[in-house]
Amino acid sequence: MREIEYREAIREAVIEEMNMDPKVFLIGEDIGKYGGAFRAYKGLLDMYGEDRVINTPISEGAIIGAGMGAAITGYRPVSELMFIDFSTLAMDQIVNQAAKIRYMTGDNLRCPLVIRTQGGAGRGVAAQHSQSLEAWFYHVPGLKVVMPATPYDVKGLLKTAIRDDNVVMFIEHKMIYLLKGPVPEEEYTIPFGVADIKRQGTDVTIFAYSNMVYKSLEAAAELENYGISAEVFDPRTLVPLDEDALIASVKKTGRLVVVTEACERGSVASDVAAKVSLKAFDWLDSPVKIVAGLNTPIPYNSTLEQASIPHKADIVNAVKEVMGI
Amino acid sequence: MREIEYREAIREAVIEEMNMDPKVFLIGEDIGKYGGAFRAYKGLLDMYGEDRVINTPISEGAIIGAGMGAAITGYRPVSELMFIDFSTLAMDQIVNQAAKIRYMTGDNLRCPLVIRTQGGAGRGVAAQHSQSLEAWFYHVPGLKVVMPATPYDVKGLLKTAIRDDNVVMFIEHKMIYLLKGPVPEEEYTIPFGVADIKRQGTDVTIFAYSNMVYKSLEAAAELENYGISAEVFDPRTLVPLDEDALIASVKKTGRLVVVTEACERGSVASDVAAKVSLKAFDWLDSPVKIVAGLNTPIPYNSTLEQASIPHKADIVNAVKEVMGI
Amino acid sequence: MAELTREQKVEFLKTIITIRRFEEKTIQLYQVAKIWGYLHPYVGEEAIAAGTCAAIKKSDYIISTHRGHGHSIAKGADLNRMMAELLGKSTGYCKGRGGSMHIADTELGMLGANGIVGGGIPISVGAGFSCKMEAQGRVTVCFFSDGAANNGVFHEALNMASVFTLPVIYVCENNMYAISMSACESISCKDIANRASSYDMPGVIVDGSDPEAVYGVVSSAVARARSGKGPSLIEAKTYRFGGHHPNDPAEYRDKKEVEYYKSEKDPVINYKKKLIDEKILNEEEIKMMEEKIKKAVEDSVRFAEESPEPQLERFLEEVKSI
Amino acid sequence: MAELTREQKVEFLKTIITIRRFEEKTIQLYQVAKIWGYLHPYVGEEAIAAGTCAAIKKSDYIISTHRGHGHSIAKGADLNRMMAELLGKSTGYCKGRGGSMHIADTELGMLGANGIVGGGIPISVGAGFSCKMEAQGRVTVCFFSDGAANNGVFHEALNMASVFTLPVIYVCENNMYAISMSACESISCKDIANRASSYDMPGVIVDGSDPEAVYGVVSSAVARARSGKGPSLIEAKTYRFGGHHPNDPAEYRDKKEVEYYKSEKDPVINYKKKLIDEKILNEEEIKMMEEKIKKAVEDSVRFAEESPEPQLERFLEEVKSI
Ligand SMILES: Cc1ncc(C[n+]2csc(CCOP(=O)(O)OP(=O)(O)O)c2C)c(N)n1
Ligand SMILES: Cc1ncc(C[n+]2csc(CCOP(=O)(O)OP(=O)(O)O)c2C)c(N)n1
Ligand SMILES: [Mg+2]
Ligand SMILES: [Mg+2]
Q1: Contact D39, D24 (CB under 8 A)
Q2: Which residues pair with B53 in a beta bridge?
Q3: What single string gives the DSSP state of each residue in B71-86?
Q4: Catalytic-role residue among B129, B139, B173, B311
Q5: Which residues line ligand 1 (CB under 6 A)?
Q6: If you average pLDDT over residues A218-237, what whole number do you get?
Q7: Is D152 on the interface with A (CB under 8 A)?
Q8: Positive or negative torsion for Cα A302, A307, A309, A315
């Protein structure tokens, strides 16, 4: 199969959906001539014009408001927040407005809005440009949360997101835009709530999403050297979460390590760990371990930055621990 | 001991601290003549004048910015967000600015800022005025999170918060402002990170904070009828969290039910459950149960609203479950 | 602008009185706890909704506020479904999920009341894009009050509406207070309409107690918007006759000020008088109108009271899908 | 206003050249990855920082942006500690924790660069309250660029500064772009200074390439602020000579436009020429100045390179207390 970059997969998804549905449009900062901060929208302004590729002022609240207002009146906007860190300027529109409108109006109004953004550390861009904030959105009823790791997943899930009738937080990772992976030429979509086992294993389940899938796969490869067969479980969507598949995996392996790049305290990892600890209590041979970012604003200095987020070695060690070696 | 209302305890704390330290001032909406939406600041404008009781326009971002700017230049402001739901309009200032400034400047600037606010359901004020959003702040390094349940706790902790050199999210609950409890006449403070066992017990630990302390105490009383001795553990501050005391309690009882009013998914309860499941794995006789709010925007209709948050019966049932009866 | 027809004037009065009576009833019901939560009556401000909504079509959109009953009624909402919503019933616009602060209806083009002050303003940008993109001449009216004009989203939205020439009419109902905060002390310019110059759009002041005046300025702004010339900002000077909510004694206001507005600027009194003076209606006709309205309001209460509560099981079932 | 002294003028030039050379060096270091993350050079805009900071005292506060090196330097920052910060070293202003976008220093009254566009503007309100409450005549200068003027917090902050008569000077460095977004297409008024009228404060436009002109208008605004008359908004027209960051080819800009500003509005070229014309300095003296600056910049690089990395253990220890 051909291999394309993660950002190219995003671009393809958007193009296919825009071609199919005239109600789909894009709105955000520097998405015009500039093609988006990570160039995922390269050339789209020329293809679709200013009416469907709307380059905005720096007004995050209004960017989401624009998306929501269009969504409740029949359009299917993709609003972009350049960094998830800037969602802080749009939380009312995301959380109090978009996420709630359907439920607080008894399904009178629907809001088919995709909010594309990206997070994560690793580029030396310090505390205000490196956060992993998915836990906030995970906690808000009315938001779906999608965090694709591969070009294949990002394309199939973005298409599904655009077609979904609800608000979808679509969270990419800044370190993987240039990463290549197989993506079929033919059209496909990926349903929400269906996990993908990125690597089969029998001794331990490693739950990981977004960029941490790669670190987990590296860890799993190294763990082979110790005779440990690790399963890498990628939920792909955090809301809805494929709990059944996860419990099944844990029942098979008897052990779970949950990985997240986000700060450990109050992370999605804790939530997953708590769920599994409850629901698979009798199948767990050892307590669920969490591998997460430190509870610190991400520092600029590279050594400190790297020390703030999980790496292969941390995952390997955690697995060894739950394996009792 | 004399008994005073929760809101009166807040008022006393503020008065004592303002009298002691001229750098302390109050800023927020309708805190002047109106005395605050819950009248905790009644009469303070007359006592301290407009320079220290600053009644602002509806500009949540600037209310926190005002607090932060004053805090990093030597003052000790108490910024008020009338409802925690409105923190959505100030998240950049809270999370990217105030919470981070100390750490991202290598301790060059300090920000002794208290953000007073209140949350919770039960008053029929629907989806945008009833949220419990502490999980967001719990997840942000650089914020302390305080959630006092009683008049005694709110007074002692607010005084500590005002004296703290960091950013403190001080989260009250709208249903308990009029509740009375014993508060000594003499000055006292309560240190952060020290839990209070609101009721001693031996069979099961119920972890609960804010308004849920009361529901848990009711549940504990009812559980006596079943011969179950429940310990009600109130952490009082979520960050820092008195983990040692919690683990000690669980080691004693062997069972844990974690209660929160917030939506279950990604809640502080999950985090606490995950921590205990890991650290007290060998002491747990049954899996940690969570009793939490439903994953829904809070509805207006009273029956539905009440169904969305935990009650005594839910806690009782959860305890029975972990007790295997 | 064309002269107003008799029918239009009668309709203004009917809308104004309907809103007034509806609000009075909600206050009563609030006092006996049949309505609870927050209730923000629109008493005193009725002419703005009446004049504004008369200047737009059924297919146009409106965006409302926490003080939104008047907007809905003027846009043509069914009193029964409104009252049912306020009583939290399953027949309400939001099936009892929303209550006073969240009434919304797709059919009606009512894009939502809002519990967040200013929360609706950014949504106007999206509704505006929608109107512009579909190019059917549809417009969006966005209501808000003085307090909201200090929320940052006001700035972001008006700037964006201007930059993209969106067909949005911003109607600021300056009732001089945001809870206890006086507009004079919280807004750094004499008139909120002044702020239009920051956004390169017309800024107009109008007497919010006069439905015809409101209708006039809104009509011009609507014409402008429909012809592709973009947004306008209208500041309607008005007054909240009661406290912020029924339990607010509003001690922060000067009694004389309150008296002045109640005696000089009551749209119900003034407009009745005007129509009588103009011989458009006589006392008798007005009385009949009042009675019809009274009955409609009472019917709405009966409808609401007789309506079933939302089903708990169904709610719990639905929550699973969120 | 008093005539400028020779010393003041020489100081302007020195500041301008220092910023320019410092920035050129950071770009070099960025290209060889000694500095990483985001770097936003201030090349072309130096006269604004130079003129502004000369008009305030050491004890006054400044609030900066993501493009903040010039502000720090003009406020008197130590080049060594700045460069060390950019290299992520423990001797940097933030011990390597912050990098380019987060330089701040209590001593210097530099309340922070900011990675959030507009993020510093609300902070000015608090610094302003602080200045007002202590009543020592201190003022706060808040820098931001055109893009930030569309962030809602701009509106909230300027309104509040005005309502409370805070001693804050808002200096908008309108360099005509926010990354690729042209100010003409994103701002709904011709000049950002216009927006001052929404906040009942003076709004002044000044040529940002001329340090004396900037000094003049800022001095007036500072005098106004110190005398208790409240905030001002100054729009300094300027141009970002390079791309948004060193790797941005800035293809969205017209070549002619870039050429025009580089040839006509370069503060280094123009002000050198002016001081020579005015016979305040001769070529030789300027050369000596340049050399001193060059050495200072090179020293800062050496200092930074020789400085120790932050200690990992210590960091890990500190994190436990967060
Ligand atoms: C963002 C936000 N801040 C504060 C509040 C609390 N609050 C509810 S109504 C109100 C006053 C609103 O004033 P205004 O916009 O003038 O509307 P009015 O009540 O006069 O119609 C306030 C402060 C809120 N709901 N939302
Ligand atoms: C709130 C926010 N939105 C978007 C960004 C991404 N971003 C960084 S710099 C920039 C442009 C800023 O433009 P302007 O304020 O004019 O400053 P300049 O770069 O011209 O100095 C943008 C959009 C950001 N950092 N913060
Ligand atoms: Mg008002
Ligand atoms: Mg700019």
Answers
A1: no
A2: B26
A3: HTTT-EEEEE-SSGGG
A4: B129
A5: B 29, 58, 60, 82, 86, 89; C 40, 66-67, 115-118, 145-148, 175, 177-179, 240, 244
A6: 98
A7: yes
A8: positive
**Nearest CA, atom 25, ligand 2:** D116
Per-residue pLDDT tens digits for C307-318 = 999 999 999 999
Rounded Cα distance, B83 and B67, in Å: 17
Cα separation, B239 vs B224, whole angstroms: 31
Q: What pLDDT shows up at residue D1?
A: 59
Strand C177-178 and strand C181-182: the pairing is antiparallel
The predicted-structure confidence for C156-188, as pLDDT tens digits, reads as follows: 999 999 999 999 999 999 999 999 999 999 998
Provide the pLDDT for residue C189.
Answer: 85
For B170, the token pair is 């001080």
Q: What is the ipTM of this complex?
A: 0.98
pLDDT-based confidence at residue C101 (cuts at 50, 70, 90): very high
Question: Does C186 sit within 8 Å of D198, measured CB to CB?
Answer: no
What pLDDT is recorded for position D189?
Answer: 85
Which one of C110, C114, C133 would you mutate to disrupt binding with A, by most A Cβ within 10 Å of its Cβ?
C133
Please give the model's pTM, rounded to 2 decimal places. 0.99
Q: Is there a contact between B54 and D125 if contact means CB atoms under 8 Å apart? A: no
**Mean residue pLDDT across chain A:** 98
CATH superfamily placement of domain C6-303 = Thiamin diphosphate (ThDP)-binding fold, Pyr/PP domains (3.40.50.970)
Cis preceding-peptide flag for B240 (omega within 30 of 0):
yes
Residue D54 pLDDT greater than 80, yes or no: yes
Place C83 in a pLDDT band, splitting at 50, 70 and 90: very high
With a CB cutoff of 8 Å and minimum separation 6, the contacts of C63 are A69, C111, C112, C114, C120, C121, C123, C124, C127, C140, C141, C142, C143
Contact of B119 with chain C, judged by CB distance below 8 Å, is answered with: no
Q: Using alpha carbons, select from C145, C142, C80 the residue that is nearest to residue C296.
A: C80
Close Cβ partners of C264 (under 8 Å, ≥ 6 residues apart): none
B311 in catalytic set: no
CA atoms lying within 13 Å on the CB side of residue C192? 32
Ligand nearest to the CA of C237: 3
Residue D157, C-beta contacts closer than 8 angstroms, at least 6 positions apart: B59, B61, B62, B65, D121, D122, D124, D125, D142
Q: C105 forms bridges with which residues in the sheet?
A: C110
The domains found in chain B, sorted by start residue, are: 3-182 (3.40.50.970), 196-323 (3.40.50.920)
A307 and D CB contact within 8 Å? yes
As a whole number of angstroms, the distance between CA D314 and CA C6 comes to: 81
Q: What are the domain boundaries of chain C?
A: 6-303
At residue C1, does pLDDT exceed 70? no
Measured between beta carbons, which residues in chain D are less than 8 angstroms from residue B64?
A: 122
Q: Is A325 on the interface with B (CB under 8 A)?
A: no
Looking up tokens 């402008």 gives C224
Burial class (CB in 10 A: 0-12, 13-18, 19+), A286: middle
pLDDT tens digits, one per residue of D115-138:
999 999 999 999 999 999 999 999
Q: How many CB pairs under 8 A join C and D?
A: 70
Q: Give the torsion through C-alpha atoms of A118, A123, A124, A125, to 10 deg.
A: -30
> What pLDDT, on the 0 to 100 scale, is given for residue A137?
99
Distance D231 CA to ligand 3 centre (A): 26
Tell me whether C243 touches chain B (CB under 8 Å): no
Residue C197 has pLDDT above 70, yes or no: yes
Whether D75 is in the pocket of ligand 2, judged by its Cβ within 6 Å, is no
* Rounded Cα–Cα distance for residues C289 and C222 (Å): 29
By CA distance, what is D183's nearest residue in C? C163
List of chain B residues with pLDDT < 50? none
How much is the pLDDT for A323? 97
